[in-house]
Amino acid sequence: MLTDDRSERARLALGTADRVLVLTGAGVSHASGVPTFRGGGGFWREHRPETLATAEAFERDPRLVWEWYGWRRELVAQCAPNAAHHALALATSRAVVTLVTQNVDGLHDLAADAVPARLDEAQPQQLQAPARPITLHGSLFALRCTVCDVRRADRTPIDASSLETLPHCRCGALMRPDVVWFGEALDPVGLDAAVTAATQADVCLVVGTSGVVYPAAGVVEVASRAGALVIEVNPEPTALTRLAAIHLSGDAAEVVPALLD
Length: 261
Ligand code: BJW
Ligand code: ZN
What we know:
The chain is an alpha/beta fold.
């Protein structure tokens, strides 16, 4: 329950905005059991995630990188969207809300899939099918060929016991996770759509991101420069707090549903 002044101001701004841009990061999935990228417990074995999420690491040791992604795919496959994902999915079906995520866990999409069932319980006349989130950094459950660039959805377990058992393309080459690693370009269509939404937003809601990875964090800078009121939900101050007119400290799964109620 949000009762203080800042929360009420945030609720009012979101409730009266014509256009809202939401940027989410790993923290939005914390209550679902997905580890954040940089938080405590952000290590897998002795490796920092930052050193595994690179093309160089994959070139050097594809088995190690696939082992890490296989582990994350299994972990995330057991996780379900939480109240923040559901509230945001419902919001994208109610108003002009553009949802942009850095997450590769697919939980926003699962929440969007669940909206029709929830619509029956809500007021169907006010709602439309939720817009799909813009996924800036790709998906854990998609593969891309390292040679011919062909993509495919895939949820099967990864066998990283040898190079031969790793996922391969029909062209014979090795497949990689279809995610964006450091030094790689984001899909220009998704990034352009996010930047356009940022220039048009009255309110920019930033949830559960450390705000240190660009160009994703730059989307908030664009919104702020274009005059959007920036609202941040995060238990900690972040690199983007300087842009926030309102910082709400807390768990996204509690704060976000109360804000969008
Ligand atoms: C809670 C919570 C709860 C906890 N409730 N909250 C400009 C300036 C500086 C550097 C650069 C720049 N432009 C580009 C760069 C370089 C680089 C970069 O940004 N580096 C910085 C880190 C220094 N960027 C890139 O390399 C990008 N590419 C690029 O720019 O290409 C240029 C190019 C152009 C043309 C041709 C070729 C190249 C690509 C960046 C890709 C990032 N990819 C990753 C991995 C994805 C795959 C995977 O997951 O395996 O994306 S890195 C990782 O960080 C992942 C995340 O999406 C991303 C952001 O992390 P996020 O979500 O913020 O997570 P955390 O863990 O950092 O934070 C969690 C937050 O949640 C914390 O604040 C907690 O407090 C909070 N929290 N519990 C709410 N319950
Ligand atoms: Zn191929």
